[in-house]
């Protein structure tokens, strides 16, 4: 059987991702999005780059800061990336914290609070932003801030009731989002500034995912379970998010790589990808469906069959990483499918970057490139990460 | 010019709605949804009636109780409707209130709380349920409860800060939802048990909508504005909900009818309908779009072009009522368009009732007939209300 991905093709792929990242994705956002007056970034933009709102989403301020710092650390020490990152760090640290130490979710361009939420995702993104910026700049305060925020996130993640809950205690539940984001946060802290807490915590969170969320009997990764790992047979409890679970799969494959290709972690990451590809890939139209019910009942969300940009970024990473780590031809085929679907349907060939939201049939549902949830993160991270793993693979094979 | 809606056609329409209501919509839900063990209703059902979740959404428990009581009060004194309504009243009053007097949003089948929200819509639906049930049963306690809850809703609606807010005070905003729901609540209280507070409050809320939400210069009804009625030029502030505004239009037309065809209120209701039909009706595929930006920019919600069942129910009522009150042929044409679109695309000819969620192109996006937000309310209310106004019209013309 002929190999789908020869070294020549993998080299072309590496060039493709690098070219997209540096000549299409990043130039859509920078330098125009850097807010020279107030610091931070103005990222809520329509397809052609027109600003549709000058508010700032704190998640995205942190993620953009991380991305610019990471490009500086790994690609090219461009002064404009470092200065851009500093603008984000200053805005995050000066304007995005409430007096109780919790971060806001949504602020005005000047940094006045609009909304705080009952989650600590703002904090995880500020942690990785500070860690990557500390490495880029050598700023010790940023490293301290990253470590402090990482500690706070561990506290939030492990202390029930510390943050107010949306639900009563009648039917307790936990989501895969917390161990997932914490694995990625710890990996970023470890890569950029080192922290002796990381390895142990990463092992614990992977074990929690493996023990409580991965269900081999029904070949599924749950999005939410009861505290003991049992399936909650109500609409919310049954709702799966295949793209999210597959993001979790590549965080675990990444950890396997860090741990000298730990075979147990490779097997775990691959089976998570296998289970959720089967549930998420749309065999009729192509692309990854947003939500599915574990027993194929209707979910609460009416837009469950839409195609969002970010699951495609995560599945492109997961399938390529699984292929490079295992050589299993199936993953090359899946990668080719999702890569071709995504660059054909999401990529805006005229203005650069990707549209965020397609109908199930692949037509564009709305044109914003940036809003409260979308900005320079999943797409540039995918292109950057794929360049990195392809480079490592091609250099050692 | 020939009239589109002759008396013969209007009589056929009346028979059609009555037949749908009594032989298609109501039998989908009752008697099977009455929970004989715990009281209340089991309403989260798939297209064929299969129960997909035995939780209870408090809004819908109240709305279903109101609907059964109202059918008893206005159509036919069927004992099963009265007994069904009693089951809802008992469940609401025994299980859906927190110790602080606020109502829950989502409870288990036994009535254990799952979630409480920062709004008082559960209370408005419990108020109209108790009012209609009081009329049906003669139960004085239910009438007292309805009046008490109406008073609490007035207090919540007029006391800033009494309920916790989702947003900070940086950019204060108010929604059209509060005056709208309060107009309808007051109308129901007045119709069923009478209450001297109603007329004055209804006038105040209509004035607030007219003064702060209706924008003649741009021919628009805003969903949200600043406290002084100015447009908030950010994504949330710009987002319109045409079906919701048109529901507000028919509440005002209904009030105009009650007030001896008050010409100012007829003009107000009709222009709200005119403005939002123009913005909401999908000229390409038919049907009412869910969200639009006031300046045609992208909205935050990616599913903004989906077709939901309930805006169609509200637009069917508004266009028919506007036609019957004004004789303006345009409204007959619009009514015919939306009625034909809705019964062709939403109605489940096999199992009865309507699907809730279509893609923009009219295909079905998800099959649930009942969930946290959908149940026996908008559709049976539309069919019931249209029968009533057609009967009144045909009897007096």
Automatic annotation (TrEMBL), chains A, B:
InterPro entries: 6-hairpin_glycosidase_sf, 6hp_glycosidase-like_sf, AGE/CE. The keyword Isomerase applies. It comes from the Bacteria. The keyword Cytoplasm does not apply. One of its GO terms (molecular function) is isomerase activity. One of its GO terms (biological process) is carbohydrate metabolic process. Keywords: Isomerase. It holds the Pfam family GlcNAc_2-epim. Belongs to the N-acylglucosamine 2-epimerase family. This is N-acylglucosamine 2-epimerase. The lineage of its organism: Bacteria, Pseudomonadati, Bacteroidota, Cytophagia, Cytophagales.
């Amino acid at each position: 059987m002929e190999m789908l991905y020869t070294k020549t093709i993998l080299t072309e792929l590496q060039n493709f991702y690098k070219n997209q990242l540096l000549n299409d994705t990043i130039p859509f956002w920078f330098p125009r999005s850097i807010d020279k007056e107030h610091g931070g970034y103005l990222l809520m933009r329509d397809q052609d780059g027109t600003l549709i709102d000058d508010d700032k989403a704190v998640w995205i301020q942190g993620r953009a800061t991380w991305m610019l710092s990471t490009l500086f650390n790994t690609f090219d020490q461009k002064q404009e990336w470092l200065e851009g990152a500093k603008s984000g760090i200053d805005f995050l640290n000066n304007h995005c914290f409430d007096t109780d130490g919790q971060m806001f979710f949504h602020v005005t361009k000047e940094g006045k609070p609009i909304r705080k939420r009952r989650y600590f995702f703002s904090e995880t993104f500020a942690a990785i932003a500070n860690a990557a910026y500390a490495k880029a700049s050598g700023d010790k305060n940023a490293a301290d801030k990253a470590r402090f925020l990482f500690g706070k996130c561990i506290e939030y993640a492990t202390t029930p009731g510390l943050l107010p809950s949306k639900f009563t205690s009648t039917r307790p539940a936990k989501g895969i989002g917390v161990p997932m984001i914490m694995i990625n946060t710890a990996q970023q802290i470890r890569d950029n500034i080192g922290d002796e807490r990381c390895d142990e915590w990463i092992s614990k969170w992977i074990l929690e995912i493996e023990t409580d969320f991965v269900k081999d009997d029904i070949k599924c990764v749950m999005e939410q379970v009861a505290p003991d790992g049992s399936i909650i047979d109500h609409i919310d409890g049954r709702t799966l998010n295949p793209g999210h679970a597959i993001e979790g799969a590549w965080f675990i494959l990444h950890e396997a790589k860090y741990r000298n290709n730990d075979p147990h972690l490779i097997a775990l990451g691959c089976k998570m990808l296998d289970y959720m590809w089967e549930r998420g890939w749309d065999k009729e139209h192509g692309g990854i469906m947003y939500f599915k019910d574990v027993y194929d009942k209707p979910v609460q969300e009416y837009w469950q069959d839409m195609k969002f940009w970010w699951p495609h970024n995560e599945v492109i990473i997961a399938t390529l990483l699984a292929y490079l780590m295992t050589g299993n031809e199936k993953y090359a085929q899946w990668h080719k499918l999702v890569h071709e679907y995504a660059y054909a349907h999401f990529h805006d060939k005229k203005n650069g970057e990707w549209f965020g939201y397609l109908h199930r049939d692949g037509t564009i549902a709305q044109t914003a490139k940036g809003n409260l949830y979308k900005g320079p993160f999943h797409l540039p991270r995918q292109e950057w990460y794929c360049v990195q793993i392809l480079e490592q693979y091609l250099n050692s094979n």
